Amino acid sequence: MTTLKTSVLGIDFENPFILSSAPPTAKIESLDKAFTLGWGGAVLKTITPDNLEMIEASQRYATWKMGNKVCGFENIELLSHLTVQQWLDGIKYLKQKHPTKVQIASIMAPVIKEEWQKLVKTFNNSEVDAFELNFSCPHGMPEKGIGMAIGTNPEISAMITGWVMEVAQKPVFVKLSPNVTNIAEIVKAVEKAGANGFAAINTVQSLMGIDLDTFEPMPNVNGKTTFGGYSGISVKPIGLRCVAQIRQNSALPILGMGGISNWHDAAEYMTVGADVVQVCTEVMVNGYAIIGAMKQGLLNYLENKGFNSPADLKNKAITNLSAHEKLPKSKQVYPHIDDELCVKCAKCVTICDESEHSALALTNGHIEVDKEACVGCSLCSHICPKSAIKMG
Ligand SMILES: Cc1cc2nc3c(=O)[nH]c(=O)nc-3n(C[C@H](O)[C@H](O)[C@H](O)COP(=O)(O)O)c2cc1C
Predict the structure, then answer these.
(1) Residue 144 confidence (pLDDT) above 90
(2) What are phi and psi of 275, to 5 degrees?
């Protein structure tokens, strides 16, 4: 019998879909609703010491849209506004009501050993199942020397991980930033310092746009902005790449995220190393109820592939990632045009002409391929609005 159940470091997940630390996990009532609807767990909105100042800006968001479709958000939101005691009470309430749901405490503190250890000790004595160390928030916090300022520095990342590991009585995942030149460096430093696993990615540092009448940037905070964090479906290729690179450099468990909007995205993350996946922006855009289709879709896929559980999918694609020089380059593929699907729009001809090769022509109502000129790059197949071109 195929199941969605999976286990990571002794923590049992009834399904591998959990909410990431963000607005959907900022309130106890919201978490209650999400668990009732079927999410396997949640990483709580990042908890900080009560005395860490958290003054939010208005506006906090800008969006990247194609028509009405949200491709991504930029946000400049800060961290949780609940006190430590409110979280402790909420976590207890949620564990009583939803005992099978996994709760992970995301935490962040100033770079002071006592502050990190105090937070960890406090939540050691709570019902949370694990910790996630937020070393990766790209806005607001780096100015205070925390968030991404930690996660872009291997020495500081290792030092804080070490402090946490001295006292943590639950598994510790370190949440990494994609905004680094070499993620492997951070992965190795943090693993050496004793971390039990990784979470990735946090948001991608961004500047959404500029109003060309006023020259005010977005999100517009009374005429000014700051660089923010980009999330949602358009960051998936970046998240997938980071998770794959973490897996190439470590065998520890990974909570993968970034642009996951359906079961298919989630499955792809698992093939490059994710044990469990997290979702934020898609839930904000389309609601907690998307979990139903995600679970059913993944279950169907696993069944059809003859897999017993998500664990069987883990790392399946990782050995297919290689250095460019080691790619099997001896064989070239060519476009095959399905005349029944082709509407002769000639978009493929234009892209091929303007992108160097001029290997396609619309001749006598048919797209002809000049095999001498074609380099098998595949651009034509991606631009075709009718999926009438297959490479082979
Ligand atoms: C509005 C907003 C607030 C967020 N706040 C946090 C946070 O407090 N802590 C954290 O670790 N990540 C935070 N994130 C990052 C998400 O947890 C997640 O890593 C990122 O959005 C990528 O996933 P997604 O593409 O599914 O949204 C936030 C993201 C958004 C959009």
Answers:
(1) no
(2) -85, -40
